[in-house]
Amino acid sequence: MKTRIGILGLGGVGGYFGGLLAKAYFESDAIEIVFIARGETQKAIAKNGLKIIADTTEIVAFPSLVSNHPKEIGQLDYLICATKTYDIESSFEIIKNCITLNTIILPLYNGVDATERILNLFPENNVLQGCVYIVSMIESPGVIKKIGHYEKLFFGSKNASVFKLHELQSILENANIESYLVENIEETVWEKFIFISALASATSYLNQNIGGILNNPENKEFYISLLNEITAIAVAKGLKLPNDIVAQTITKLEKSPQDNTSSMHRDVLAGHKTEVHSLTEFVVKEGLKYGVATPVYKKILEKLL
């Protein structure tokens, strides 16, 4: 029996890592990669494959199957999901019959509440925690553009089978994905959340890219205020983060392409639905829950809503 891995959400994250998996296991006797897609994306990939354009390379990957029909998709051993956070519940409704009690689910979302939300839908399943650092986006249906060389995937679980976790790690490594099986995954996910939440909120509110945040003293101070607020919440929750987490986060941003911006800012500019509830409002609500003041986040939320 082949190990069947579904990729739900073929945007910048799911498309990129799913593409690497499909490329590595094309015609494999042991592993089958299934893209769960519909509409123009499904048509483009079925005809031309999924294209990944990087700074100096370009690859085309064909999955074993690209479909949005549960009967065609069949039962899955692993499901890697990377839709927008506002689509979590609706996207799972489509493929719920493909998920068995043995299906291991790896969420790769921008927020930190995805695991809890998926467990509400599938309380008997092993739902891992995970996050990625990458700058990638949809250029057109079936085409993913990746910017820069930095890409890392982190995942882990306190409950899942150690064997299954190491099996997944091996699958990812053999596809040349820089992945890390992390023991203290909740802290790792929150470190990423601190990075992306503050960046998404600041770029969207100020209408500035990364360079516009870092190279303007007033904007940078505004951004650091967000880092301080969200870090205070993490501390109130009892998470053991590095003492210099704010400085580390700024350093990560300084290493990012200066002309790039957050995916939420791109959605704001395009007039699309945004992840403001998961990336901004969530912080405000957690602040109220733990008694931590978040005046800057509140100011942003009022504008973006």
Automatic annotation (TrEMBL):
Ranges where the Ketopantoate reductase N-terminal domain occurs: 5-157
Ketopantoate reductase C-terminal domain segment(s): 184-302
Family: Belongs to the ketopantoate reductase family.
GO cellular component: cytoplasm
Biological process terms in GO annotation: pantothenate biosynthetic process
The keyword Manganese belongs to this UniProt entry's keyword annotation: no
EC number in record: 1.1.1.169
UniProt-listed InterPro entries: 6-PGluconate_DH-like_C_sf (IPR008927), 6PGD_dom2 (IPR013328), ApbA (IPR003710), KPA_reductase (IPR013752), KPR-Related (IPR051402), KPR_N (IPR013332), NAD(P)-bd_dom_sf (IPR036291)
Identification of the protein by name: 2-dehydropantoate 2-reductase
A Pfam family of this chain: ApbA
Catalytic activity, reaction form: (R)-pantoate + NADP(+) = 2-dehydropantoate + NADPH + H(+)
Name of the top EC class for this enzyme: oxidoreductase
Biological or metabolic pathway of the protein: Cofactor biosynthesis; (R)-pantothenate biosynthesis; (R)-pantoate from 3-methyl-2-oxobutanoate: step 2/2
Record organism: Flavobacterium glaciei
Function: Catalyzes the NADPH-dependent reduction of ketopantoate into pantoic acid.
GO molecular function terms noted in the UniProt entry: 2-dehydropantoate 2-reductase activity
Keywords: NADP, Oxidoreductase, Pantothenate biosynthesis
Keyword Transmembrane helix among record annotations: no
